[in-house]
Design brief:
The chain has 432 residues and is mainly beta. It has a single domain, classed as Porin. The chain contains two helices and 24 strands. The N terminus is likely disordered. It comes from Flavobacterium aureirubrum.
């Protein structure tokens, strides 16, 4: 009797609560969310002080000689560090089709920080959505610069991913991809810098970018087959460094009128720069080879050498010209699933400007009014030891930089000095 009463009570409960005592098939949800990322730790050891980012996690180039009172080079001093700030977390979401297109969105961050002071704080990397039709697609949001090719970047252990030989960074953008046939694709991207940007002449982050009413525009053609990926692109990059300039009149030599007021003038001058990029990847079952080259002006926003300079321009406050930078690299690596050695070599230089008149100001990376990096090269060797989703990579690299005097056209020559830095790195990554 007790069992009968209990079964009757349970049956009544399910009826009242709207639940069935019979099994049912739950409908699949139209949305799917996946979490991805990795935990990573890196140890680095350097023989020389370098231009660096985030407590030596990313080394750019070895610094010029800095002699003390006894003639000893202060920068000939080593450094080392343990860091996990490039550990990453991301979310990918897919949902029902939109206007006949497959759709997904990605939000991803790491703990690299946006500045040296914000290291270990969460930094936005990617935040975009993509609509994919059969022969074309649209991407909008923050993702890679169009000059950074996800399938063609150095596989080095150093978190630099080839910086400053390879462009790096993300930009908020609109991107349209069109398949021309089964092998060729055309892409058009309009973007505005966000994570990195042109050197701000007024000290306000990204001001040359948002002061320009025209976005950067990039177009490229890409070829894909079973073993080859190749592409060529061209970019137009407009900046407006200042909307006003303060002109301070010279004080007369006799000093009779020292209180001459400064003159503030509206500035309509813009800086329009261009660049070209070409890349190639050959891939088979045993190994792959990647080649990349870029040449252009004002590549500061790509975390590369160079930038721009301002010049006196008569009645207008100033005019601008970009500093030309060239870079190329090659990366060769094994495709072995467990033990994969690799080799990287990169070269970059800056050629200055076409102007022979000394600039008013220089806004650039790797160059000042007196000294600058003429060129640099880096060679590195690594071995990836892989087991399931764990990877351990030791790497040895050597970077050589030529420093010299800055000429009026912002090329580097004269009192040249070659310095080098040896870096040993061990990287451990567990992906999920």
């Amino acid at each position: 009797m007790n069992k009968f009463i209990m079964l009757s009570f349970l049956s009544l409960y399910y009826v009242v609560s709207g639940q069935s005592t019979t099994s049912t098939v739950t409908a699949e949800k139209p949305y799917k969310v996946e979490v991805f990322g990795f935990a990573r730790v890196d140890y680095s050891w350097d023989t020389r002080q370098s231009a660096q980012v985030r407590e030596y996690h990313l080394n750019l180039w070895p610094l010029d000689e800095k002699l003390d009172a006894n003639g000893q080079d202060i920068n000939q001093t080593g450094a080392s560090n343990f860091l996990s700030v490039v550990s990453r977390i991301g979310v990918k979401a897919t949902g029902p089709d939109v206007w006949g297109a497959k759709v997904y969105g990605i939000v991803e961050g790491d703990f690299f920080g946006n500045t040296q002071q914000s290291i270990a704080l969460l930094r936005l990397r990617h935040a975009y959505a993509k609509l994919e039709w059969k022969n074309n697609s649209i991407t909008f949001g923050q993702t890679w610069y169009p000059t950074f090719i996800p399938e063609v970047f150095p596989g080095v252990a150093n978190f630099s991913t080839g910086i400053p030989f390879n462009p790096f960074g993300w930009a908020t953008q609109f991107r349209f991809d069109q398949n021309l046939n089964d092998k060729f694709k055309f892409s058009f991207i309009a973007y505005k810098d966000r994570e990195f940007g042109a050197f701000p002449a007024d000290g306000n982050q990204n001001s040359p970018v948002y002061n320009s009413i025209i976005p950067a525009m990039h177009g490229k053609i890409e070829y894909r087959s079973k073993t080859i990926l190749a592409g060529f692109g061209a970019e137009f990059y407009p900046n407006k460094p200042l909307i006003e300039s303060v002109i301070t009149p010279a004080i007369p030599i006799n000093g009779t009128n020292p209180a001459v007021p400064a003159v503030i003038l509206k500035s309509n001058e813009t800086l329009n720069s261009t660049s070209l990029v070409a890349y190639l990847k050959y891939n088979n079952e045993k190994f792959h080879v990647k080649l990349y080259g870029i040449s252009g002006e004002n590549l500061h926003h790509l975390v590369m050498l160079g930038g721009y300079a301002s010049y006196a321009n008569g009645s207008n406050p100033v005019t601008y010209e970009g500093i030309k930078t060239n870079a190329a690299w090659i990366d060769i690596a094994s495709n072995n699933k467990k033990t994969a050695p690799g080799f990287f070599f990169g070269y970059t230089n800056q050629e200055g400007t076409s102007s022979t008149v000394a600039p008013v100001n220089i806004y650039a990376r790797g160059i000042t009014a007196t000294r600058g990096v003429k060129d640099m090269w880096r060679a590195s060797a690594r071995v990836d030891f892989k087991q399931n989703k764990f990877r351990l990579t030791p790497e040895f690299e050597y970077t050589s930089a030529t420093h010299g005097k800055t000429k009026s056209d912002l090329s580097i020559s004269g009192d040249e000095n070659v310095v080098g830095n040896f870096r040993a790195t061990v990287s451990a990554v567990y992906s999920f």
